[in-house]
């Protein structure tokens, strides 16, 4: 990260995003681990703080992005398919950042499960950030040209390096755990990068494993409240397969494979237009 241009506004925005969501997670972890408060920060307060931090991040991104790019959603696979949703983009952006943050948090339930998909998403978006910030490559791939996003590669390189170092100690049996400090901050940063590079839809594809984990929780809660029945034996999804008899290592490795497939599909979508 020290190699990055710390005058680059996108890098500074991402550092703020990482620190703000990391602080929310740290306070939650502190209350749970040190103060023996099993609930930590209340769900409502945590969501409020996430929305507050996410809103600031989105405002800063809009403020530092060229006006003709703001409030627009660029769709992969379709040439020149751009949707301008105006002020509603702020709500959309919050769904991306807060959703990504909580999705990584939900996935972080088994040793090594969350960090490898995080690394894969970071690798994919390092490529996307580079080509989006290069006028020649972005024109060739028919992507939105976002000036100065190349520096995001350095930020993501730091994330990847830290992730690999963390995986060394988080591999089963884990000696170090991500906690909310890591999962909320990493997820939010990836969501913010999706917004900065105008690849929010591609982020959902590349982060497909996180999306599936989140959907399993949403479906489980909705089904139980509406019908009194559970769709899965347990949610998030990785616990469902544990209940079905899969070993922890089997779940983790197979979910890694799924994450690799999603990353490749996301990359392929850049060329298929």
Automatic annotation (TrEMBL):
The gene name reads mraY
Q: How does it sit in the membrane?
A: Multi-pass membrane protein
Q: Which UniProt keywords apply?
A: Cell cycle, Cell division, Cell shape, Cell wall biogenesis/degradation, Magnesium, Membrane, Metal-binding, Peptidoglycan synthesis, Transferase, Transmembrane, Transmembrane helix
InterPro entries with a match to the protein in the record: Glycosyl_transferase_4, PNAcMuramoyl-5peptid_Trfase, PNAcMuramoyl-5peptid_Trfase_CS
Which GO molecular function entries does the Swiss-Prot or TrEMBL record give? metal ion binding; phospho-N-acetylmuramoyl-pentapeptide-transferase activity
Q: Which GO terms describe its biological process?
A: cell division; cell wall organization; peptidoglycan biosynthetic process; regulation of cell shape
Gene Ontology terms: cellular component:
plasma membrane
Q: What is its EC number?
A: 2.7.8.13
| Record field: transmembrane | 7-27, 47-65, 77-100, 112-131, 152-170, 176-196, 201-222, 251-270
Q: What CDD domains is this protein classified in?
A: GT_MraY
NCBIfam families the UniProt entry points to: mraY
Q: What is this protein called?
A: Phospho-N-acetylmuramoyl-pentapeptide-transferase
């Amino acid at each position: 990260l020290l190699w990055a241009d710390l005058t680059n506004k996108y890098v500074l925005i991402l550092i703020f995003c990482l620190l703000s969501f990391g602080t929310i997670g740290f306070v939650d972890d502190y209350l749970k681990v040190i103060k023996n408060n099993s609930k930590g920060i209340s769900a409502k307060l945590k969501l409020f703080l996430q929305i507050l931090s996410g809103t600031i991040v989105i405002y800063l991104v809009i403020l530092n992005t060229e006006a003709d790019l703001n409030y627009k959603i660029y769709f992969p696979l379709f040439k020149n398919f751009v949707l301008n949703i105006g002020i509603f983009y702020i709500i959309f952006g919050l769904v991306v950042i807060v959703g990504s943050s909580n999705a990584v948090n939900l996935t972080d339930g088994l040793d090594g499960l969350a960090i490898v998909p995080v690394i894969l998403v970071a690798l994919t978006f390092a490529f996307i950030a580079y080509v989006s910030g290069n006028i020649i490559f972005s024109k060739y791939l028919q992507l939105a040209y976002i000036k100065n996003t190349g520096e995001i590669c350095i930020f993501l390189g730091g994330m990847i390096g830290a992730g690999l170092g963390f995986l060394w100690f988080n591999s089963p049996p884990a000696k170090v755990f991500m906690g909310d400090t890591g999962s909320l901050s990493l997820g939010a940063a990836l969501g913010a990068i999706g917004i900065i590079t105008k690849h929010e839809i591609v982020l959902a594809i590349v982060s497909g494993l996180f999306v599936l984990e989140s959907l399993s929780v949403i479906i489980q809660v909705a089904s139980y409240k509406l019908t009194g029945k559970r769709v899965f034996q347990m949610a998030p999804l990785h616990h469902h397969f544990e209940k079905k008899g899969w070993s922890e290592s089997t779940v983790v490795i197979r979910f890694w494979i799924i994450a690799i497939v999603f990353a490749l599909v996301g990359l392929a979508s850049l060329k298929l237009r």
